[in-house]
Amino acid sequence: MALAFVIDTALNACQVGLFSHKDGFVSEVVALREYMTRGHQEFIGSAALQCFEKAGINPRDVDILGVTLGPGSFTGLRVGLSFAKGMASGLGIGLRGFSSLELMGRAADFHQQRRLVVHDAGRGQVYCQRLEADSAVSPPESYDLVNLQEIDLGSDWHWLIGSGAPLLAERFPQAQIAAEVLPDLTAMATLCCASTTAYDDLTPLYMREADAKVSDKSVVHFA
Predict the structure, then answer these.
(1) Which stretches of 106-212 are DSSP H helices?
(2) What is d(CA 171, CA 189) in angstroms, rounded to the nearest whole number?
(3) Other Cβ atoms within 10 Å of 28 Cβ, number
(4) d(C-alpha 49, C-alpha 59), whole Å
(5) C-alpha to C-alpha distance for 175 and 115, rounded to whole angstroms
(6) What are the φ/ψ torsions at residue 176 (nearest 5 degrees)?
């Protein structure tokens, strides 16, 4: 049996979970979720500790870690990725990173169906990722809402998933809408042990520039 510990702080929640892999099946041991738009850094450490205490498992028994890389909130992503890197380093185990959009589309309810995941990123932008019925995945893409009707987003989607899904409901009337979806922890735990290098890159998927800019003002020196 292998154990995977997974972390998601990309969107409006902080999620952590401990999952077991045995004979090709993934089972949830303990998972915790708290909905929030900020404050991930205060929750994540205690939530991780609670997971291991409830499961009666020592963190050193974990074999692999997983974390969402975005797109999502800049602060949330930095919190989750920093925590995951520190934990992986301390335990001396591997860490894999995942698109939050892909994990939303990989929830069990949507398997073997064509899925367009659409996250409303605010400021007139949406982030999209496409998952085919065979779960082939395109890279995440960023679009301006004003140009969205002119962009080829494919057709015959079975599902529109994510906070931006209602924005495309009229364009794809045949698709079912699932707007309130978070990155799926079971899917992340499953992919943690997949025989692929596709999730070894830990580069954050910020998708746009950060609000905070490096000051271009001159340094003031005091005598």
Answers:
(1) 185-192
(2) 34
(3) 12
(4) 9
(5) 9
(6) -80, 150
The span from the first CA to the last CA of the chain, in angstroms, equals 64
Rounded CA gap, 96 and 103, in Å?
Answer: 13
Place of tokens 């920093």: 82
Q: How many CA atoms lie within 13 A of 210 on its CB side?
A: 10
What is the Cα–Cα distance from 38 to 111, expressed in whole angstroms? 31
pLDDT computed for residue 209 by the predictor? 60
Task: Tell me: cis bond preceding 71? Omega within 30 of 0 counts.
Answer: yes
Residue where the block lists tokens 């989607």: 157
CA dist., res. 44 & res. 79, Å (int): 8
The amino acid sitting at 48 is: A
Report the alpha-carbon distance of residue 111 to residue 131 in Å, rounded: 10
Phi, psi of 42 (to 5 degrees): -75, -25
**Segment 161-208, tens digit of pLDDT:** 999 999 999 999 999 999 999 999 999 999 999 999 999 999 999 987
Does residue 133 contact residue 113 with C-beta atoms inside 8 Å? yes
> Beta strands 64-70 and 94-99: pairing type?
parallel
